[in-house]
Design brief:
Blueprint: E1 4-8, H1 16-28, E2 31-37, E3 41-46, E4 52-58, H2 67-75, E5 79-84, E6 87-93, H3 107-142, H4 149-178
Antiparallel strand pairs: 1-3, 2-3, 4-6, 5-6
Helix pairs in contact: 3-4
Amino acid sequence: MGETLNRIRLFTIADFKEEEEWLREMHRCGWKLAGLTPPCFFHFERCEPEDVVYQLDFRCGRDGNGTDYRQIFQDCGWEYVSSCMSFHYFRKQVSRMEGEEEIFSDNLSRADLIGRIWKWRMMPIFVMFFGCILPQIRHGVTGNIPRDAFFGMYVVLLSLYLWVILHVGIKFFRMRRSLQ
């Protein structure tokens, strides 16, 4: 077996384009993606440096696990690499491209991808935020529970959730607007 390389790299759900570019650059440097371990561990194998486009698709549940799903991409020349947390990783050599470097050929399908990610990843974050975090903060501020380590933990979670919501929300808004 050849050389392997493991990298830790954190990408939010809105950073999938940056992740695709990073994977492409790693392949140009002679490291092809071999697999992933959630949430942020990338496993690479040594390869000949070449220009290879990586594309991610997001499908929850049975939508992305069937052989029919993968066969559609394979018929278009895309090699299935791996899946991680409902993101499916495909790659294709640039020399085999026929103009388009994306698996999504129109703005409608790109908008559909963004909508699926928003629905299946951001909506649960909103439920947790408004159903669990905010009520605990409110109780801590109004004095209904003592301010202790748990209150501090909820303040940290509040900050983290607000950052994620703003970061992802702004990026998705910009992506959606660019497709119109």
